[in-house]
Amino acid sequence: MFIVIEGVDGAGKTTQVNMLKGKVIRGKVIKTTKEPTDGKIGKLIRELLSEEKFDNLKMQLLFAADREEHFDSVIKNSIDSSGILVSDRYIFSSLSYGIASGLDAEWLIGVNSQFPVPDITIIIDLDPKISLMRINARDSKEAFENLKFLTEVRKAYKFLAGKYSNCFVIDGNKSADKVQQSIIELINANLK
To answer: What's the CATH code of the domain at 146?
Structure first.
């Protein structure tokens, strides 16, 4: 089973993925991964995200290239196994952030069309004002992290959630433990 956790920066995705790592659900151990990856392309993406300006179109192509490498080296094997792989970000991040950047939605969908849709996508929904408070408590900040932009990203996530029956939205205002409980309940209810 392939599961993705999505949401605006600061929504708690990484916290939730880290909390899931190694848990056992119905005899299946949860393994975790993330995008951008720690590979060469993923490292380049992180470097570019720390800069004030970059070309959104080129960034989306880099995200797709990183995703291709990620799919071939990690995701594909998990889809073929009976285990559970949970990823911190995947296609919906590219779509939501790309749409919020003003890129054409159809083009973004086309660039990502060769990648399989996850079995479950979980969007942790959080007001961008709260996510920015969480982000400001961190040591580093990325180019996408401002109120206007994150508001648009949130709208794009909500739009996408309405388009896919295997996409679920969880309230990110709850405590980390309550969000985790909701995620585990969703996994249990949808586990093949």
So the answer is: 3.40.50.300
Residue-wise pLDDT for 132-156, tens only, equals: 888 887 666 555 678 899 999 999 9
In our burial notation (b when 16+ CB lie closer than 10 A, e otherwise), range 103-115 reads beeeebeebbeeb
- Coil, strand or helix at 81: coil
pLDDT digits (tens, 9 = 90+) for 1-33: 999 999 999 999 999 999 999 999 988 999 999
Contact 109, 159 (CB under 8 A): no
Number of independent structural domains in the chain? 1
Helix ranges, 56-175 (H): 56-70, 76-79, 91-100, 105-111, 128-136, 147-161
Element counts in the chain: helices (H) and strands (E): 9, 6
Whole-structure pTM value: 0.92
Domain limits for position 185? 2-190
Strand-pairing partners, residue 34, are 88
**And the tokens for 144?**
């996408």
